[in-house]
Amino acid sequence: TRQQAPPPRDLYVLVHGLGGAPGDLAYLRRCLQKRDPTAIVHLAVCNSGPLKTFDGIRQGGSRLASEIAEVIERHPSLKRISVIGNSLGGIYARYAIKLLYTPSSGKVGGLTAQDFLTTATPHLGVGSYGYVGLIPEALQKFGAQTITGQTIRE
Fold it and tell me: DUF676 domain: which residues (predicted)?
């Protein structure tokens, strides 16, 4: 007889960066699935699409927290969560974890926090945009704030 796979216990949430798409982290997803075929490896989709990463960290982080909560609800067997964010995705992930964190239990969305990893995430903010010397500083600031909107201000 064919053995049924055990229910998933681990959740990995992968979060893309500014102007990105879930597919940006598809290779990492494949690697994690190969390493642990029973895990849920979720590519966050809530901040993909035109201009979705430009309305601020609070908005994007809140959307991500809601998406993570929905995934957890669909898989009641989950016990542990790991969140991996690339660039702005790391900032969104940090904000979402804060929203999902329960101090009394130390849990994130009701799950034990396993790992929080970020790559190329500007945890200390970002400097001026543009190519130094090629674009006047005033134009750099105007362009950055106009294009990235609330996200760059936060």
Answer: 10-127
